[in-house]
Structures are given as C-alpha cells and as structure tokens.
Hints:
77% of the residues lie in helices and 0% in strands.
Amino acid sequence: MWSILKGEWRKLRRCQILLVGIVALALCPVVQYGTQLIVSPEVRNPNYDLVSLFANVIWGNTQIFLPISLVMIGGWMIDREHTDDAMKNLLTVPVSYPKLLGGKLIITLLLSLLFGLYSVAVTVLTGTLAGLEGLSAAVLLGQGAQVVAAALNTCLVCMPMILIFGQMRGAYLGGSLLTFFLGYCILFFKSGFLLSAYPFSAALILAGFDMQAYNGATQAPSVLLALAGMAAAAALTLAILMRSRPGSKAENRRKIKKGRGQRRRA
C-alpha cells in the first residue's frame, strides 16, 4: 500500500487538475466577504469579523467548493488510468483492484487535509487584507481546526461519488456537479431527521459547526444522528469499493498476458 500511495502522490503533484482545488478554495473567502459587502444594509452583519468569515468559509467549502474539487480530482485520478490506457499495466502487478482504488481514496483524503490547511491560510490572509478584527491565537486554532475537520468530513462524504463517477469513463465532471447539488441541499434541511443525518449536514455538525446560528435551523441537531449519517456514507464507500472491478477491456488484456506467461513457462 505504501508504494501505491507514494506513486499516486508523485503523479498527482505533476497534474494541473490540482489548480481546480487551489483556485476554488482561494476564491471561497473572497466570495464570502464580497457577498457581505454587496448585500443590502438591512441584512448586513454590522459586527462582521474574522470569526464570521471563518464560519462563511466552512459553510461555503462544505456546500460548494470542496465537493466540486474533491470529486473532480479524486474521480480524475481513477479515470486517468483508463483514459491513459495504464490499467492494463497496473493489473499485471499483484495488487487487487479495490486496494488500488483504496490508495487513491487515501491520497484524496490527504489532499483534503492539505486543502483545509490551505483554506485556513487563505482565510486569514483575506481577513487581514480586508481589515477584519478578531485575529488571535485562540481564533486561529479553534476556527482553523474546524475548517480542517469539516474538510476531512466532507471528503469522507464525497468518497462514494468519487468511486462511482471515477469508474465511469469521463464522468467525473458530471459527478462533481451532482455532488455540488447534493451539498447545496444542506440549505433546505432545517429540522427533522435530515438536519442531522444528511451526510453533508453531518460533516458540519461533527466539525462543531453551529447550524442553528448560521443556516436558520429551527432545532438543535443530533450528534448521534450525524454519526449515523457519516457511518452510512462510510459503509456505502466500503460496499462500492469491495464490489469494484476493472473495465472489461483491461481485464481481458490481463487474462491474455496471464495466458502468454503460462505458455512460456510450459
């Protein structure tokens, strides 16, 4: 597994698709602060500070920017093995296909951690340039940890979509758009079972995000339901991973190579 992870990380560092996440997460705090400037004075927050900006960034990342970026990058990592015709070579290595996909998911999870840290830095920079008050060590540690936790949770929620659309030739772009829609649906769940158990909502709740104070939730969310929602997403990921099989074209080539090797030994 360690060799798979090193290989995937080296390949990813050379790929321009990383710019999708880098640009998207850099835009998030800028967009959130810009929205505060253009809204009408009646709804504008007169005490808008760095803590408020962090809350906006956590919401925007979980709802829009991270789902699009992670599904696009993670799905592309799987899809490229087929489009670059590399799967026929990978399948000659004594590594199971689910283990290969698992390595790609672990790299995506690591990437979400780095994206979370990057988002913290960009948010602090944006707030400093905008002259927002409230920057302190306690705010940086507390809000920064929340941003990173939300990023990791969001990645776990997105894993089923990464596996499904990454294995459908050229479908990872459509998968990122669908995941954006699923993330946007958080806006509509303000009470009841889905407020807590909906996976994207659960990602925020388990990161310590105050749903009542931010999105107008009419009741306190349940941590137990949030854990159940995340567990359901993890179980779905595991089920898809275990049932994943390489494409028929790559599998046929593997069988042909295996047959040739047996004839040579004979």
